[in-house]
Design brief:
nine-stranded mixed β-sheet, Creatine Kinase, Chain A, domain 2, 2 domains, six-stranded mixed β-sheet, 15 strands
C-alpha cells in the first residue's frame, strides 16, 4: 500500500487506525496506535518517538539495567522511529487498520546499531558491496492449543490441550475448527500482501508449519513479524492460542528454518554452477556457517527454553554438520539447478528473524572473507557423527562461547556483541531462581 492509497482509504472511511511499530529484541511488534488522519498529517512525514527501553527489556518488558544504550542512569529517554513507507500494509484481521514498520534512530538521527532491523540491513549492505544479493524463505512451526491466552494463563499454562490430538503430519483431513483457522490465516496473510507458499500440519499434536515464498531477505524478516501477529490474533478469535516457543512441551520442538541463496548483481545464482553443483563460493559459505554459527548461538537461540529443542532424532540438529537433502544436518543443501540453496535448520520458532538472519549472513560472510573450506558433506544419520562439534545444550554454554572469542565482536561490532551478551545474561538471570514444574515433580516428595 502506498501513502496515497492510504490517504484515499482514510478519506473513504475504510481505514481509521495506523499501527506504527518496530521489532524489539525478542522479535515482537512494539509501537503505538495512531488515528489515521493524525498519522497522515504528522507522523508519516515527521516520524515518532518511543522509549529506548524497547531495545533493552526482558521478555516481560521489565527495564533491565546494564545496557550501554539506555539505563536507569540515563533516565530511559526516547529514540526516534523513522517510517519505512515500503512496509505499509493492510491488516485484514484488524478492521480498518494498517501497519507500518519504522527504524530506530538516536538523538543524532543516526541508526541505532543494536536495533534488529538495522543489524540485518547492515549485513545485507555489506554483502551488496561484494556484488552479492541475498534471497531468503522462512518456514515456521508453532503449536495451536485449545483455549485463549487468558484461559491458558488462568490454568498456569499447565495441562493445555492441543487443537488436535493426533499426528497429522501432511494430513489433508483436518478437524473443522483447525481447517477454518488455516483458511482464515491464509486469506488474511494474502490480504496483507503475504501470500503463503504452503501450510501443513506437522507431527506433534496441534503443530502447524507455514512456508513463505522465496524472495528479498529483508522483506522475509518483516513479513515474519506480520505473520506471527496474524497467527496469534486469528487464533485468539477462534478460541485457540498459538505458541512459538521452541519447546512448548517435553519432546516437542518448533523450528524456524531459513532457506538462503546468494545471487550476483547480474541476477545469476552464486551457489550453483551451470551443472547444478555447488560453486567454490557455496563451499566457503557452508564452511563459514559451520565455523561462525557455533559462537553466534544466542542470536538464533535466545532463551533458556530454546536449547530444549536440540535433541537427537527430532529433526532439530545437535551437531554442526552439512549434507545434501539431509534433515539430520544443521545445514541442508536442497533444490536443483538455479534453485539450489541452503536450509539452515538451527533457529527455533522463538528466534527473532532479523537476528537469526544476521547471524547466518555474518557467518557466511566470514567464510567468504577467510576462504574457509568445509569438511566433506555428511551422509547418513548426522546425530551419530562422532567428530562434528555439538550444538550448545544450554544458553549458559552458548553465552560463554559468544563472549569468549573475538569472532562475534568482529562480525557484529563490539558494541552490538556486548548488547546481546547482556540480553542473554538477563535471560539466564531471570530463569535461574524460577522453581519449575520439573523441580516440583522430581523433588517435592523425594528431597
Amino acid at each position: 500500500m502506498t501513502l496515497e492509497e492510504l490517504r484515499r482509504q482514510v478519506d473513504n472511511g475504510e481505514v481509521d487506525t495506523v499501527l506504527f511499530a518496530m521489532p524489539d529484541l525478542q522479535g515482537r511488534l512494539k509501537g503505538k496506535r495512531y488515528g489515521a488522519r493524525h498519522f497522515l498529517d504528522r507522523v508519516a512525514a515527521e516520524g515518532a518517538e518511543v522509549c529506548t527501553y524497547l531495545l533493552a527489556t526482558d521478555m516481560d518488558m521489565h527495564p533491565v539495567d546494564g545496557y550501554d544504550l539506555v539505563s536507569w542512569s540515563t533516565g530511559y529517554g526516547d529514540m526516534g522511529l523513522v517510517p519505512d513507507l515500503a512496509t505499509l500494509r493492510a491488516l485484514p484481521w484488524m478492521p480498518r487498520t494498517v501497519l507500518l514498520l519504522g527504524d530506530a534512530t538516536g538523538e543524532d538521527g543516526r541508526p541505532v546499531e543494536v536495533a534488529p532491523r538495522r543489524m540485518l540491513r547492515r549485513r545485507l549492505d555489506e554483502l551488496a558491496t561484494r556484488g552479492i544479493q541475498v534471497k531468503a524463505g522462512i518456514e515456521s512451526e508453532y503449536i495451536l492449543y485449545q483455549g485463549t491466552y487468558a484461559q491458558a494463563h488462568k490454568r498456569g499454562y499447565r495441562k493445555l490441550k492441543p487443537a488436535v490430538t493426533d499426528n497429522l503430519d501432511y494430513a489433508l483431513d483436518h478437524p473443522a475448527p483447525v481447517d477454518q483457522y488455516l483458511r482464515e490465516l491464509a486469506a488474511a496473510l494474502s490480504g496483507a500482501g503475504l501470500p503463503v507458499e504452503a501450510i501443513k500440519t506437522e507431527a506433534a499434536p496441534g503443530q502447524v508449519e507455514v512456508t513463505f515464498p522465496y524472495g528479498d531477505a529483508f522483506a522475509a524478516a518483516d513479513g515474519h513479524l506480520v505473520f506471527k501477529h496474524a497467527a496469534k490474533h486469528i487464533a485468539e478469535r477462534a478460541g485457540l492460542s498459538a505458541t512459538f516457543m521452541a519447546a512448548p512441551e517435553t519432546g516437542v520442538g518448533n523450528g524456524l528454518h531459513l532457506h538462503l541463496s546468494l545471487w550476483g548483481d547480474d541476477g545469476g545464482p552464486l551457489l550453483a554452477d551451470p551443472d547444478g553443483d555447488l560453486t567454490p563460493l557455496a563451499h566457503q559459505v557452508i564452511a563459514g556457517l559451520l565455523d561462525g554459527l557455533p559462537v553466534l548461538t544466542p542470536l538464533y537461540a535466545p532463551a533458556v527454553n530454546s536449547y530444549k529443542r536440540f535433541s537427537p532424532e527430532t529433526f532439530a540438529p545437535t551437531r554442526y554438520t552439512w549434507g545434501r537433502d539431509n534433515r539430520t544436518c544443521a545445514v541442508r543443501v536442497v533444490g536443483h539447478g538455479d534453485g539450489l540453496h541452503l536450509e539452515v535448520r538451527l533457529p527455533g520458532a522463538d528466534a527473532n528473524p532479523y537476528l537469526a538472519l544476521t547471524a547466518v549472513l555474518a557467518a557466511a560472510q566470514h567464510g567468504i572473507e577467510e576462504d574457509l573450506k568445509p569438511p566433506p558433506p555428511f551422509t547418513g544419520n548426522a546425530y551419530q557423527d562422532a567428530e562434528a562439534p555439538f550444538v550448545a545444550t544450554t544458553l549458559h554454554d552458548a553465552l560463554d562461547a559468544f563472549s569468549a572469542g573475538e569472532l562475534p565482536s568482529r562480525l557484529l561490532t563490539p558494541a552490538v556483541a556486548a548488547h546481546y551478551a547482556h540480553a542473554a545474561r538477563t535471560e539466564l538471570d531471570g530463569q535461574r531462581l524460577q522453581v519449575t514444574d520439573a523441580d516440583l515433580r522430581w523433588g517435592f516428595s523425594r528431597a
